[in-house]
Amino acid sequence: MTEIAIILIGFTADTLLGDPRLLPHPIRLFGRAISLMEQSLNRGESRRLKGATMWFVLVVSTLLLFAFAERLAAPHPTAYILFSSLFFFYGLANSSLIREVWRVETIVRRGDITRSRLQLATIVGRDTQHLSTTQIRTALVETLAENLSDGVIAPLFFYGLGGIPAMMAYKMVNTLDSMVGYKSDRFREFGYFSARMDDVANFIPARLTAVLMAAVALSGRALTFIFKYGNSHSSPNAGYPEAAIAGILNCRLGGDNLYGGVEVHKPFIGERAREILHKDIITAAAVNMAVATVAVAILVLSKVWFG
């Protein structure tokens, strides 16, 4: 019952509060630690080895720190529930992104294309200066699908495997990838290991996410697209949830985009090239919330059945 309470409290808090920016957040501390180590190590020779060393130090330290804190709280039921619920809440990142997506979509509906491009740039990595309305909405749909995997299903997956310590260790893995896992001159060698380990960590969650998306939408086309387009993406994982939502919406995602002024060629995911509409954003957001709810229900049931 304690574990079930932790899951339900944490999930409810994420649904209602998202990411309150006034509260301290462990991911910001993770980012600070990564930045300090990167500035110190990412120079000279053997950068790939140095990047791997940083990864091991930060991920193992996170795992051990939270395991130690959990052990300290364990003899005190109230403290344990508060500690675990708080970091379960911090481990999820669904409703905050949905709100950010909705903020962009609201500006798009007002017809302010310039401001919507600027707002979109706060949540996606691609260059947004010249995107059309459909391209903006395509980016929103893709971001929702990808975040559902690494912001919800993957943290829940690792919580199921090893509780809060494993969940927070995964968040460190994901933060490392988001900060140094780029193919730029600065990070190509230093961030190589972080990028590869994020691929490994998300391999199963990405595919679970895609299947859950197809299931909640009752979409046979989504299942077809998962098998047909899932491995089309340059990422070994991101293509699966994107393929699922393309099937659900019966649209085409992907295509070439600019990143830092450099054109990146990406294959299309899906078959029907059409305008992405307001109702598609509504559907994509609803699928996200439905999948998150179902995944939490599955996690709760697993605790009931297996303890």
TrEMBL record:
Cell compartments where the protein resides: Cell membrane
Keywords: Cell membrane, Cobalamin biosynthesis, Ligase, Membrane, Transmembrane, Transmembrane helix
GO MF entries: ABC-type vitamin B12 transporter activity; ligase activity; threonine-phosphate decarboxylase activity
InterPro entries: Cobalamin_biosynth_CobD/CbiB
Superkingdom of origin: Bacteria
Main location as per UniProt: membrane
Pathway the protein acts in: Cofactor biosynthesis; adenosylcobalamin biosynthesis
Tagged with keyword Phosphoprotein: no
Gene Ontology BP term (one): cobalamin biosynthetic process
Membrane topology term: Multi-pass membrane protein
One GO term describing the cellular component: plasma membrane
Pfam families the record matches: CobD_Cbib
Transmembrane segments: 52-69, 75-93, 152-170, 204-227, 281-306
Family: Belongs to the CobD/CbiB family.
Function: Converts cobyric acid to cobinamide by the addition of aminopropanol on the F carboxylic group.
Protein name per its UniProtKB record: Cobalamin biosynthesis protein CobD
UniProt source species: Mucinivorans hirudinis
Record gene name: cobD
